[in-house]
Design a protein that fits this description.
Layout lengths: L13 H24 L1 H10 L14 H9 L4 H16 L4 H21 L8 H21 L6 H32 L7 H8 L1
Amino acid sequence: MAETVAKTNYKWRVVDIVVAAIIAVASGVIFWGWDVVCAAPLALFEAVTPGFEGLLNGFWLFAGPLAAIIVRKPGAALFAETLAAFLELTLGNQWGVGGSLIVGIMQGLAAEIAFAIFAWKQWNIGTTILSGALAGVACWAYYWMTNPGWNAMRVSWYLVGSIISGVIIAGALMWALHKAIAATGVLDRFASGRAEARV
């Protein structure tokens, strides 16, 4: 129960900013690394059926849900996903401002909405999975809007793939990662770490 409903404390501390920024920077480097190697996997998945490559989007969606579930402050998901996307863009990639920063902001905002729905009081695997799923929807929305030539089948496959990828990679996997990190004791200054210590 302690992990599900926590005492509301919306005030950010310096340590919250630092940890959210660290998560964002690490995520941004991973995003950029995935940019470098993703061409072949994307082409392979797209060859199965156009839109199927949405299943790989989770590798760009996880910064927001991870930062939110660790820091547990309003805006953490948006902050981390946006900063990660900015770093990814700064390091240089094939997607440009739109495919990096703009979509990153959209993904971060969508990931944030999952926690906002519950007034930033529900910190469990369900909200984390919802956060990943909504980030996937935002990713789909950006690429649908910027690719008006996509047919209905591709749009549908891309949506389904993005949601599944968000649920698994940005949601369930980030929840498991947060639990593993908390178990080491390094998050004792956070509600997420103290909740793990009580389990």
